[in-house]
């Protein structure tokens, strides 16, 4: 296993759920963590709690300039960048026939453009230093489509493809897909269709807690430089 204490790790969507759990998991490794999301109050509280190895900055992943400023600020603060965890995502599920065009656009912006903005912001550094690790949080929805999930799953199929493409193109850079099954988080709180919101509650009866995904991310990060964990799929059992 590789010690993470010399590394600087950037984490998006760190204000709740899987992102927050990943910050907590990695804070124990001694790594320098630079964390982002739109809700700065939550980031500040987390950084204050965890100490000076954690720094934060507000980030809107849909905004290329915001993402670049986030990455530049991380380098200013900690001197280097080793890992980007593209975790931010949204999931306003709905049937296609509901024609929720705005929600489709928001999902594509956050879940796909957000990941691409992140890759674009670190790739020149990673290629110049001939090392780096991009971890993209996709979903089990990158492997199967469920009713009301057509657009959400499409965005996660895209994350899968983008990550695999990055891995194939870059010999010196590690690329990992993390594909969680159902996890109990705030994801889906923005579902506007009451029936779909109820269905999500039923799915969540068998769910993981976010720390399970944080451990999967840590596993991928702690491998030696020559080992690229391509994908980890983590799903709950009834015992969860
Ligand atoms: P949460 O809703 O708890 O967390 C989502 C995070 O994304 C928040 O920190 C939110 O922060 C951030 N975010 C949303 N929009 C933006 C934006 N425009 N810019 C920056 N940050 C943003 O959900 P999860 O922890 O569950 O989700 C994390 C990832 O895991 C997502 O990619 C999701 O698709 C994926 N996933 C989750 C599963 C689950 O069952 N929970 C299953 C499979 C995959 P803020 O609002 O402060 O900006």
From TrEMBL:
<protein>
    <submittedName>
        <fullName>SDR family oxidoreductase</fullName>
    </submittedName>
</protein>
<dbReference type="Pfam" id="PF00106">
    <property type="entry name" value="adh_short"/>
</dbReference>
<dbReference type="InterPro" id="IPR002347">
    <property type="entry name" value="SDR_fam"/>
</dbReference>
<dbReference type="InterPro" id="IPR057326">
    <property type="entry name" value="KR_dom"/>
</dbReference>
<dbReference type="InterPro" id="IPR020904">
    <property type="entry name" value="Sc_DH/Rdtase_CS"/>
</dbReference>
<keyword id="KW-0560">Oxidoreductase</keyword>
<dbReference type="InterPro" id="IPR036291">
    <property type="entry name" value="NAD(P)-bd_dom_sf"/>
</dbReference>
<feature type="domain" description="Ketoreductase">
    <location>
        <begin position="7"/>
        <end position="186"/>
    </location>
</feature>
<comment type="similarity">
    <text>Belongs to the short-chain dehydrogenases/reductases (SDR) family.</text>
</comment>
